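Morning, I've got a small favour to ask if you have a moment. I'm working through a protein record and want to make sense of it properly. The fold is given in discrete form, as structure tokens running alongside the sequence. Can you walk me through what the tokens say about the fold? Thanks so much in advance, here it is:
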Amino acid sequence: ARLVRQEVALRRVDPKALPSGCDSVLYLPGGSRSLRGCGAIARYFARLAPPELGAYGAAGDALSASEVDEWIEWLSASGPPAAATPPLLARLARHLRMRSFVTGHAASLADAAAWLLLRQLPAPDKACSGAGVHVARWWGCVEALPAFKEAAQLLFGAAKDAGSLEIPLPNAERGKVVTRFAPEPSGHLHIGHVKAAMLSAHFATQYEGKMILRLDDTNPSKEKGDYETAIVGDLQRLDILPAKVTHTSDYFDKILKLATKMLQDGVAFIDPSPKEEQQALRLQRKPSPHRDAAVEENLRLWAEMQAGSAEGVKCCMRAKIDPASDNGALRDPTIFRCNLEPHHRTKDKYKVYPTYDLACPIVDAWEGVTHALRDRQYSDRDHQYVWFQQALQLRKVDLWGFSRINFVKTLLSKRKLQWLVDEGRADGWDDPRFPTVAGILRRGMTVQGLKAFILSMGASKNTNLMGWDKIWAFNKAVIDPSVPRYTALLADGLVPLSLEGAPPAPFAETMAAHPKDESLGKKVRFFGPTVLLQAEDAALIAEGEEVTLMSWGNAIVRKAVAENGSLKRLDGQLHLEGSVKSTKKKLTWLADTPDLVDVELVDLDFLLTKDKVEEEDDIKQVLNDHTKFVHRGRGEAAMRQLRRGDILQVERRGFYICDEPYVRPGDPIRLLFVPDGKSFFGVPPPKK
């Protein structure tokens, strides 16, 4: 009923009051007809819903509707949740590789049935996050839908969002909310954009509306088509799928006509004054001497601007608001400028371009946006936004302000980030030290971790400078239960331990990739008569001490052999009957076999040495010269199966993400350390 927006009155009754063999009854208005059983009632509501909702599969698609029936029947026959969950998660993992929902293009009855079964598990979030990225993505999506949230609260006592994002938007109507995310295509999206994008998508989902991605391409000097492609790709990586993608340039002709009307109506004027003079008068709160020029003169100069003539390029168009206002954004702001550079979409068609401040309220109204989310840093411009909509008699758009995210030692200036790329100080816009979406995801941040962090901030409108530890802690909560474990040791100073009692030849065993979750798959682990230990571990073992070799058992070290004060090897005896609870040292190890792989364990530091970088700071003076630390290592043979982007835990060292997988012997697997909120380095740097 919630899924298809049908109002029903629910009443819990004694099961004895229901017809025999029936768990629920739907009494239709008038009381003359009824339906028995949850399945029949659910199908009735789904068929009753408008086709565009997709509750019974894609509209008008008999196959899609039949797929809904097939899923429901299969789930009904799967037994209790504990028995049904493994086959369901396995089927979903395969089925959702190329789909957002089980059937059709929206949450259907099939999604509801699968969700209901999984929701009955003791830890459904953990089960779904451990079933792979496709199931985790689907689970996060349906869990965020209002119908599923309401059902979770009603049936399972689920708490409302801890992030306090259930606050109502002003004048919002369910099913009619339209938000927009309007970045300028002058660079890649960074962490500062993520909050705006995720909040816009979140509110659209919360109110069962839609989000528009509008590329604000009003400055041909900075914008490129490549950046547009990158922005769309970044949003896809964030699991944000806009209802449509538009460009401000789609409306240039209409905006030009509107600007001409503004001149004719006397609410704008052309200012040929030098830029410096305009700035000085604004500071003095004095009007431009050209503010009251005749309409005919304004239209003549406007024609020169559109032609890109020598006279026209010296002019700009300004709105007549209030040159003496206490709000600097209202002191007759510039709304059109000349720019003779070719536009990446419209080429040489236009010589004048609207400013963001003018285009945004206009296009918001034209595209049906109901709620525009805006950074509170620019709240002084909200009055300007409202003025344009009122002066131009446009449909009102409600504004909702949010606080921006500021992180320590983080550079968000696109110009300065581009300089780092151009100077070879960074590998590209996806450099894992960059705060770009591509960079932080390459570093090991997950979409689920990002979203959890954003939602935890809720509706707070306070702007703070925060450390990176909190966001990485949210990420750890996502990856810790769902990533496999492997062993890798630093190559420098490996110490062999010979084990008496071990089989004379190396052997392999298949074991769980995660000791606490077999659903994450298996891996092959090699054992042998000689194992390699990390040098610092070996140095702490006393002769006669019993230690635990993780994932194998206990061993007693009988002898330590040193040369010139350096430990060369250990001799010991396998003691598998020993208790792992009685040992103080739990050691990671690798069987000394030819199957080991070369790895690089990479630690990354901040690019900047200063917590808060000001606009006037010389970037060269605050750059950190040493930000990448590469440690050679040896890893277990199973690490050959890692793919680029896979996140793993290296035992006793921390979380890593595979940046370069295994290709051939001699080419190391490159692993980047993923901060966890406490540790920023996998291999602690030497103390200064």
Summary: Residues 129 and 453 are 17 Å apart (CA to CA). The radius of gyration is 31 Å. The mean pLDDT is 89. The longest strand covers residues 553-563.
